[in-house]
Amino acid sequence: MTPESHSLTGTDDPSLGPPPGCPAHGLGPGGVRRLYGPEAEDLGAVYEKLRAEHGPVAPVLLHDDVPIWVVLGHAENMHMARTPSQFCRDSRLWTAVQDGTVKPDHPLMPIIAWQPMCSHAEGDEHLRLRGAVTAAMSTIDYRGIRRHINRATQYLVNKFCEEGRADLVSQFCEHLPMAVMCEILGMPNEYNDRIVQAARDLLKGTETSIASNAYIMDALMRLTALRRAAPKEDFTSHLINHPARLNDEEIGQHLRLVLIAAYENTANLLANVLRVVLTDPRFRAQLNGGQMTVPEAVEQSLWDEPPFSTILGYFAKQDTELGGQRIRKGDGLLLGIAPGNVDPRVRPDLKANMQGNRSHLAFSGGPHECPGQDIGRAIADVGVDALLTRLPDIQLDCEEHELRWQASISNRHLVELPVKFAPRPQQDVTQQPSINPAPRQSPNNWRVGTQEPSATASEPATAVAEPTPMPEPARRPGLFRRLLRWWGGK
Ligand code: HEM
């Protein structure tokens, strides 16, 4: 069955739909299930109904009742992602875009609209753009990055360890990936509360999103200009100097793609792993007993709560068949990461421990498979490990059922993760995280930049605008500036 396009006439008014409890509740025109609106608040339950009704590929409706297929089967998702001769990521091929069913003001337009980036490109153009991104990634010094993740975790934990309580989402998970990515891209001076806020705001699609996007693009385009003039040993310089010769616009778009893809997904992964560690007795007992490593906990979380729940979308390049459904050329399909990960054909027992098995769909597969997965995993592995080492008695500071989630078609993430622990003194960020730390060095003698230079160098103070400093703790003036200088290798 091919999803049919439905006109939004008066008779299709969703407000005139059947009452809750009626079997037709949650259905749109043609009896097709909606993936939006109040009926779709629990998308996991909707996917299971669809699987029971249609099998591994089901017709559904997006906002404005735009028809699309959702791929629910693990094997079918993998087949789609790995068969570029039949399915691609170029939304310009989507019939619903071509015939105007998707209106320019569609709420999902920011992720539907085609852009000249590797995530939407195909064939030779994809090879050119992605080749430059992966080549630049291959120059990253992973040992240096792990050291940096440890230091950034120490720095973040220092900001709340004396309080005895914190919200890990806003005070840890949303900061660590940004601190690490600013370092990798070569702009450690740009890491501050403001850029974290801008990235969060950009993804919310609020009225201020355009200004937030402009703030981030401004930082990235200044960095591009600097590195064109004087390359250094960082991701941005390698991207610029790749033989594919990306122009400034392409460099800026790919820096933004990498920064935002890394920030959002890794922040959600960190929160999910920490929630599981804090709430699931299996993990807590196993982590303490040393039977399950943090990397295994990360992999389990990538199965159970993948940071991207679906990817919009893939598009059929020709008439074909998938999961028993007839797919027409130009049909759109959602890569169903979350439903594919719980496909009963690969996971008959959802409670079973996956023991580090990596065949989940969290990073997709095929030509567009996430090239940053090792970085995402490293941030989660090292960050969670360091946090647990610093605060081994950390506990959830509310009932598990009180945790609030925010869900959209693309992801489901925790709004906050309140925790409590015995208040502890700050630690020297240059040391390995420890339960029994060596006393902190006197701030007056703290010259970390000379002890262990940063993996990347920062620009002269005149070249990049001074970042808005984070509020500094009153008792230790100047710490943030010294930290920035040290991160910058000065
Ligand atoms: C836990 C963290 C992460 C998750 C779950 C994740 C997941 C994904 C997924 C599902 C895709 C789409 C694949 C498709 O189109 O089928 C993707 C693409 C991508 N990701 Fe990640 N990602 C993560 C972290 C990162 C990081 C840290 C970076 C960069 C350092 C990154 C860079 C990219 C890029 C550049 C693409 C586009 C690749 C292409 O289209 O060829 N991601 N990611």
UniProtKB/TrEMBL annotation:
Region (Disordered): 1-30, 426-476
Residue ranges crossing the lipid bilayer per the database entry: none
Biased composition (Polar residues): 1-12, 427-459
Protein family membership: Belongs to the cytochrome P450 family.
Full protein name: Cytochrome P450
